[in-house]
Amino acid sequence: MPLPYPSIKPCPCGSGRSYASCCQPAHSGAAPQTPEALMRSRYSAYVLQDEAYLLATWHPDTRPDGLDLTDGTRYLGLRVHGAEGDKVSFTATLRLPDGQRAQLREHSTFTRLNGRWVYLEGTAP
Ligand SMILES: [Zn+2]
Questions:
Q1: Tell me, what's the pLDDT at 125?
Q2: Which among 58, 63, 120, 124 counts the fewest CB atoms within 10 Å?
Q3: Which residues form the signal peptide (predicted)?
């Protein structure tokens, strides 16, 4: 089960908007309209440990069987560098289970499946 998160608080993805007006609708079933919106909602899902959402928005060809979101990794922040077409580049700041900070930089590729954007794959820049 995802962690509870108040609708009026700033969205975990760092957009500056409230959770209710940013990633919450996607987590509640609405289809994100752009790859960036989907990417942000997936980042927020990592923060909130919403495994079901992450798997549901992952292309079946590349989707893992499951995710361990309770290994102690904390998601500290997201910066989106750019979005163009089906690509989004970003840096996520993490604190690993051993306490070390890490920066995850990724170019994510998204594709449409049955009319909805899904995550296909990510590569390091
Ligand atoms: Zn958001």
A1: 82
A2: 124
A3: none
